[in-house]
Structure formats: C-alpha cells, structure tokens
Amino acid sequence: MALISKTIVGIDFNDHSAQLVELKEQGGKATLECYNRINIPINIINNGEILNEEELKPYLSYLFTKANPKPASRKDIAIVFPSAKVFTHIFDFPGNLDEDELRAALPYKAETVIPFSIDEVYWDFSVINKIQKKGDKVGEQSILFAAITRDVADKYLSVMEYMGYTPSIFGIDVDSLRYGLESQFKPKKSILVIEVGSISTNYLVLKDCHVKHYFSANKGGKDLIEEISKEFNVSEDDLIEEKEKGVLSPKYAEKIMKFITGNYRVGKKIIEEKEKDKDIGAIEEVIITGEYINLPGFYEIAKKEFQDKNISIGDPRKSILVEAKKFTNLIKKGEEKTAYSTYFTNAIGVALRGLKGRSLKTINLLPERLQKQNSIKKKSLLFGITAVVLCLVSVVISSFLFYKYQITNYERLSLEVQKGAIEKMVQGTRYQDIRTSIKQFNKEIEELRGIDNAMFSVPTVLEDIEALISPKITVTGIKFMDSNLLIEIEGISPNREVLLEAVETLKSELYVDSVITPISNFDQKYEIPFKIEVNLIFNLLPDYEPGEEAPS
To answer: Stretch 72-89: mean pLDDT, rounded?
Structure first.
C-alpha cells in the first residue's frame, strides 16, 4: 500500500458541456471523490476550440466549486482534448530505434500527414506495438503520434492558469478510452470501442488490451442536433435538454436513425478491414459509450448491425470504486438501460491515465515548459519526503535510546514506590481503603455528569425539522444518525420553488449547521424526488427533558 495517496482531477470539454471527476488512489484502486457536469452555452466553445475565454471562466469555476459532494481539488489536473482538434496517426518504424531516435525522426514523418509545421503544434508519441526481431530481421514497432495546434492548446492553458489551476496532463481520447474502459477489456480478445461524442465519433481497436487502430470521424452528436434544429426550426438548447432527459420527439426518429446507422456502418468497415490483420484476428465484441448513446434505439440498432458480435455498454464506473450511488442511471421506456456515467468516460479515463499511467509512456501534449516544471516539483517532493524519512529515522533512534534510559529509571522509581506503599500499608491500611473508595466515588460522579451533559432531545429536534418542511411536500422518510449529528430527509416536492423554499427554511433554524442537497435534486421541474442532508450543531440542540425517550 502506498504511503501517500494520489489524487487527480480529470476534465473533459466539448461544445455543449464539461465533465469533471476527482479520483483518489488508495491501495491500488481508484475511488470517486467527487464529480460534476455542467452545460455550456453555444458559441463559448465551438468544434473543440475556445472562442470566448472570459465567458468560460465562471462555468469552469462552477465546475470545480459546486462538485458533488464536495469542491474538487486544484492540485493535480488532467484534461482530455476534444478529438476533433487532435491529429493522430500510427507510424511504423524499425524495432531497433530507441525513444531518442524516434523523437528525432518523427517530426519529418509527421509533417507529411499533418497540415501544419511541427513548430506550430505540441506533439508526443507512444509505442503501441513492438514486434521483436526474428533471426536476422530487425523487427518493427508501431508508434502512435498525436499533435494539437499551439493556439488551441494555449487557450485551454490560459483559462486554467488564470483560474489558478495548473494542469499536469493534456491527454487524448485514445488513452482516456483505454484507461476508462480497461476493466471491460478481455485478455487476448479483439475489441472495437465506439465512442459517440458531441463533436466526433471515435473508433478504437484493441487486442489483448493493447491499441491496434484508432480513427476519429469529425461527425458527432452536435451535427445531429444542428440538422434537426434547422429542419424543424427548434433551438439547439431545447433539443439538447430533451436529449438529456431522454424525451426527444418521435418526429426526429428518421434523422436519429440515419445518424446512428451511419456511425455503425463506419464501425463495420473498420471491423471488416482489421479482421484481415493476423495480429488482430476476429473482433468478437463491440463496446459502445459516449454522451450520445442514450439516443432512442442506439442499443437495439447496434444489435442488428453487429449481429455476430457481443454488444455491451462502456461504463467507466467498472474501473473505479464508487462508495455511494453518486451516478444516476438514465432509463427510457422500451430501451436498454444506459448509464449516466457514460458522460464521464473520458474524464474518468484521463484521470486514471494520470494515476495508473505515470510509470508508463503515454501521450501528454502539455507544453514542454510545464512538463519540466512538474518534473521539478516531483523531484522536490521526493527530496522532501527523503529528508522527512531521514529525520524520522533519527527521531526513532533517539527515542529508542531515551526509552531505554526511561525504562531503567522507571524500574528504580517503581522499587522506591513499592517500598513506600508497603510502609504506608503497615502504618495504616484503613487510610488506603478510604482513599480508594473516595476516588472511585468521584469517578462515578464525573461519568454520570458526562452522560447527563451529552443528552439532548431527539424527538424535539425531529418535530422541529418536520414542522419546518412545507405541507406541500410529501416526506417519505426521515433518518437521524446520532454518530455524526445528521438528519436525512427524503420525499417528493411538487416543484422546484417549494423545494428551494424548504431548503432555505431549514437553513434558518438556529441549531442547523448546513443543509446539503445535490444539484441532481433540481433536474426536474415538477414532482421532484429529493434527498436532503441536515447537519446539526450539538451545542445548540434542545436539552433532553426527563420523561422523554433517551436517544439511543
């Protein structure tokens, strides 16, 4: 088990929304600490490029400060770039080239496939497949190259640094999908992952958990929304809201069917081509994920298009520990169950890449100056930890010597005390008995006084809390937890206004410390199921009166 736990925040941006998760590594397993998802108005980010930095800043601040169930950390941040802005290509090189030789050769090859000079981009690479030499043959290695233009990346960096956040990773979809869904990949099996995002649809082929092929089609859910908006004269914001709630009108069915089928046909072509590769072989499973897989019919159409394949939902929750039900499943009538957590596939993936991939060579498009700065910070931390350990060793040795001295001294004093005690017993045994009885009596008085001071009136508190809740609200349960002075209230509110009024009324009570209500309580306008946590102030609680039932 690691002496120091690692914590990292993963962020995924797109044109309409941003997703955030904070993961903490404990005992080799990543645990969800908090998460948030916000909608971003149109034209702040367009096709993955930040157009208005000033308007984005308050949304970014809200993303961090209003995360559920606590604000997100600022210490270590990993961002996954929108795939529409990242150029990727797989090159083949001789297997005997080392990392330095590959880094020197790649710029020349890269300029043959990217429409920019190598000086205009941030770039990186990773070895995704290496075939060992056989006999006199040198062998080959496949290199995944990725790049993003400096002007696009610098805008993300500028916004983050202005808000006081210093990223340690600028990742890409290939790694975030690989790490985010890794627990669902089967050893020695070939798998196709289809991620349907906002501004692109991405296709990833893996064999034995290793990347074999990656393709990004710059046509995502945003294009579908724009087409429906123009044809039916409906605002894009309204369409996105309907899509989020799973209530898109049946009149859009033809457009949606065409969009879904088109994506799957690309996937079928990739399967047909890659199954010819002996190194990949038969692709037995298709995993679908992304924020647009909750479109009507998405799962059913997949079963028809890939009849001979096993179809499954790519759920990143399977790669982490979730201590409570912090994700809500979206279920639509007549549809296969799809998880809300698929919105967070890339955010979780880039965070896991930061936790698990630190010892591996994965792609990081962070500017070189920041990578060097982060490296210096890590070395400084290592030196600091080493110094602390040496100090602790010195303290332990000194403490041991002091302890030995104290033991010797204690034994001497103990003998003297025993001698004095024997003398006192001889001179007056009755005195010792009376003194012992008095001490025992005083101890019992103190214990009884502590019990009396620690009691407060639970029935009065619960009656007061229930009286503060509007009669318009149907309370389905109230639970009091004595160990942490917390009251959980569950129920159904007729609308948001009544629920907000109830929250404010609870906050006004003298002995209420805080009222916690997740943002998800306000997803609906009417008939809102909710859960409220009320933290109490012990010193201000009403005293327990004789005759009441004592708190257990």
So the answer is: 90
Measure the CA–CA gap between 506 and 464, rounded to whole angstroms: 10
In the block, tokens 């096709």 appear at 47
Structural fold of domain 458-540: Gyrase A; domain 2 (3.30.1360)
Please tell me the distance from the alpha carbon of residue 176 to that of residue 453, in angstroms, as a whole number. 55
**Domains of the chain by residue range:** 6-366, 389-454, 458-540
Q: State how far the Cα of 464 lies from the Cα of 106, in Å rounded to an integer.
A: 71
CATH number of 6-366, picked from 3.60.21.70, 3.30.450.370, 3.30.420.380, 3.40.50.1220: 3.30.420.380
Single-letter code of the amino acid located at 160: M
Tokens 């606590």 appear where? 70
Query: What is the DSSP code string of 371-403?
Result: HHHHHHHHHHHHHHHHHHHHHHHHHHHHHHHHH
Tens digit of pLDDT for each residue in 497-538? 888 888 888 888 878 888 888 776 666 778 888 888 888 887
Please give, one letter per residue, the 3-state secondary structure of 208-232.
Answer: CCEEEEEEEECCCHHHHHHHHHHHH
Highest mean pLDDT among 334-338, 415-419, 493-497, 523-527: 493-497
**SS3 category, 303:** helix
CB contact set of 168 (below 8 Å; sequence gap of 6+): 8, 76, 77, 78, 354, 366, 370, 374
Q: What pLDDT sits at residue 32?
A: 93
The residue among 382 and 434 whose pLDDT is bigger is 434
Give the tokens for residue 522. 């306000």
Nearest in space to 208 (alpha carbons), one of 182, 188, 193: 188
Please enumerate in sequence order all residues whose Cβ is within 8 A of that of 192, keeping only pairs 6 or more positions apart, or say none. 203, 204, 205, 267, 270, 271, 283, 285, 286, 287, 309
| Residue reference for tokens 């590959």 | 102
Question: For tokens 């012992």, what's the residue?
Answer: 436
The two tokens of residue 331 are: 């279920």
Q: How far is CA 61 from CA 36, 65, 96, 272, 448, in A?
A: 11, 6, 48, 45, 51
Q: How confident is the model at residue 449 (pLDDT cuts 50, 70, 90)?
A: low
On the question of pLDDT at 452 being above 60, the answer is: no
Q: What is the token pair recorded at 159?
A: 């916004």
Contact criterion met (CB below 8 Å) for 26 and 10: no
Spatial distance between the Cα atoms of 378 and 372, rounded to a whole number of angstroms: 10
243-273 confidence digits (pLDDT tens): 888 888 999 999 999 999 999 999 999 999 9
Residue 6 phi/psi, 5-degree rounding, is: -105, 135
87-94 β-sheet, strand order: 87-94, 140-149, 121-131
